Amino acid sequence: MEKKIIDDYLKYDSDAGRYVMDPEQEVRDRVEKDYWKMVLRNLVRDWRLYLMLVPMLFIFLCWRYLPMYELLASFKVNLTGTNRVAEMEFVGFSNFYEVMFGSRRMMFWQAFRNTFVLSAYGLLFGFPVPIILALFFNEIKSNAYRSVLQVFTYLPRFISTVIITTLVWMLLSGKGIVPGATPGVISKLLVNLGLISQETAIRGVMYHAEYFRAVYIIQGIWEGAGYGSIVYFAAVIAISPTNYEAAQMDGAGKMQQLRYVVLPAMLSTIVIMLIVRIGALLSIGYETVLLLRHNNTYVTAQVISTLAIDWKDEANVNLATVPEMVNNITSMLLVIGANMISRRVTETSLY
Amino acid sequence: MKRRLEISELIFKILAYFFLTVFALCCLYPFIYAISSAISGKYYVDTNRIILLPKEIQFLAFKAVFENNSFWSNYANTLFLTFFGTIFSLVTSILGGYALSKKRLLFRRVFNFFLVFTMWFSAGVVPQFLNYVATQRVFRDIGIYDDKWMIVIAMGMNAMNIVLLRNAFESVPSEIEEAAIVDGATEFQVLTKVYVPMSKSTIATVGLFFGISRWNGYFWARMMIRNPNEWPLQVYIRNYLENNIWNSDADTIFNNPYAETSIVYAMVVCAIIPILIIYPYIQKYFAKGVNLGGVKE
Fold first, then answer.
1. Using CA atoms, how far apart are residues A280 and B110, in angstroms rounded to an integer?
2. pLDDT higher for A203 or B157?
3. What pLDDT is recorded for position A303?
4. What is the count of structural domains for chain B?
5. CA dist list (Å): B253 to A177, A204, B55, B242, B248
6. pTM (predicted TM-score)
7. How high is the ipTM of this complex?
8. Any domain includes A351
9. pLDDT at A347
């Protein structure tokens, strides 16, 4: 900005300032020579606004940022039996070495692999389902029937993890341990379909490590697909009917309509959601895993967060925070990478 | 101009009707099954003979749950956490989101980054646990012995929800605010009389998100609350499942006139009824609110 313009605005300054919403205020702020004087005047003028920020900032500082300091326990060792991270002895990377290459490496890499595999399968099988649901919802022209279907399919998203996992246990394994008990309803169905053996069903599907991933992912789809379709459905119904008509005039079948009319309209939403999912690849919902796993299924069910929870009790917090540190750094890199790609591809930054 | 459906369109439509109906029924089935099992006879539940409809209807399991005092005291705890937790989170988020939506706020980018960074990088379970233990100590020091307040204040804030509110407030035209200020409204009045009414659907959505997550909260309540009388409902149900269903002797189970699992189903039904009651009213709001929040950027 040139000197002359600045002077103009400064001259104009003398009689302004009576109104809080003075339109020149911002310009004047920007060209103010004494930066801190401007800051101070802003604080005085908008003190109510800053006061409104305080509770939120306080909560985030105390319960989102202070835990990041506790994460530094992974670089420390507890010599005095204290439970304060600040009083522990700094040792550098020796905890990391022990967890990643030392005596605990098997457990760590198993959990790391499980986390990654569960997320990747969840992405592979779970990601297309809401899109397909949205396309199907669009086919149903009766508003009343569609609303009913939507109400039903969104519902599981609002039921607690505890209740959903309880139902999963009950439906799959029945009571399991009671003598003479037969397997749960879904297990019986699976036996009839020939997907699992009778023996497996009686011993309980949930006690078999090889089925954990399938259970977890199907449970996730059942819970989240209907709700996840909202955002895609919004993109689909925004398409003008004339586009379909034009395509039909040109003799396009349904698949061609989907390919040339619907897909282009949904593409940006799909790309954004995909990038969000890739960014969240390593942050798996530990609550669900914790409630669905069993002593027999740790081989496939142990993920980073649950491993950390276990180690907190059986070893110490210094070792328990190491997997989380590794996980957090990796997933932050994924998020930043995904965000960069998003900026390139869709010209919108997600965050 | 009406035109005949092409064969491919017809097939797609039939597929859509078929799969959506099946999927919707699948979404509903576990809940119907839970209700049926809760009110069926002991023999049928114990041998897993309930498929869809109840057999030999009786309400003894519900009666047992209704007479269970600790269940209802835990229910009251959940109501407490949901009510105060939602109000606390919502008020704090509205204030913060409103301030962040103002262009004249200095260091706006810094504050935004402060918020959004927590979406990129969260400390993880164990550091959070250490932090909450320290918080508990501080709360005890200042004389708050009820852990429920700690859960209300320390947990459940969500950067995403604040961003949704911020975006909604940003989309309110600034002329309206100016008009209100010329009429002599204070900052707080501008927020409560102009911005809040104009962003009702987003606020309803975010309030619903907070309320649902408070009602459903399990893990931290289990980790932080030692006294079983202070537990919320979810912890009680899971604990009941672990201790009375999985780890109990077969002998003790067979004494009751109802199946022991019917108790769990009855509790499940009691726990989801409040959600089922409010859900249809808010359902139309959140579809709208989510779209509004998503479109903006």
1. 24
2. B157
3. 93
4. 1
5. 12, 20, 20, 14, 8
6. 0.86
7. 0.89
8. no
9. 64
Domain around A333 = 98-346
Number of independent structural domains in chain A:
2
Expressed in percent and rounded to 5, the helix, strand and coil fractions of chain B are 75, 0, 25
Quick check: A149 and B279 CB within 8 A?
Answer: no
Give the pLDDT confidence score for residue A27 in this predicted structure. Answer: 63
Query: Within a domain: residue A278?
Result: yes
A231 touches chain B (CB under 8 A): yes
Cβ of residue A234 closer than 8 Å to a chain B Cβ: yes
Instruction: Give the domain-ending residue among A38, A70, A90.
Output: A90
Last residue of a domain, one of A44, A59, A90: A90
Same domain, A104 and A131: yes
Whether residue A322 lies inside any domain: the answer is yes
Over residues B71-81, mean pLDDT: 95
Angle, helix B147-154 to helix B125-141, in steps of 10 degrees: 130
Alpha-carbon gap: A4 to the closest alpha carbon of chain B (Å): 24
Q: What is residue A235's predicted lDDT score, i.e. its pLDDT?
A: 87
Return the beta strands (E) in B119-189 as ranges. Answer: none
CB B166 within 8 A of CB B97: yes
Read off the amino acid at residue B45: V
CATH of the domain at B188: 1.10.3720.10
Query: How many other CB atoms sit within 10 Å of the CB of residue B245?
Result: 20
Hey, are the CB atoms on A139 and B12 less than 8 Å from each other? yes
Query: How much is the pLDDT for A268?
Result: 81
A144 touches chain B (CB under 8 A): no
CATH code assigned at A254: 1.10.3720.10
**Between A81 and B149, residue with greater pLDDT:** B149
**pLDDT (mean) for B56-62:** 90
Enclosing domain of residue B213:
7-295
CA dihedral B43, B48, B52, B57 (to 10 degrees): 10
Residues A209 and A157 in one domain: yes
Is B2 a member of any domain?
Answer: no
pLDDT of residue A31: 62
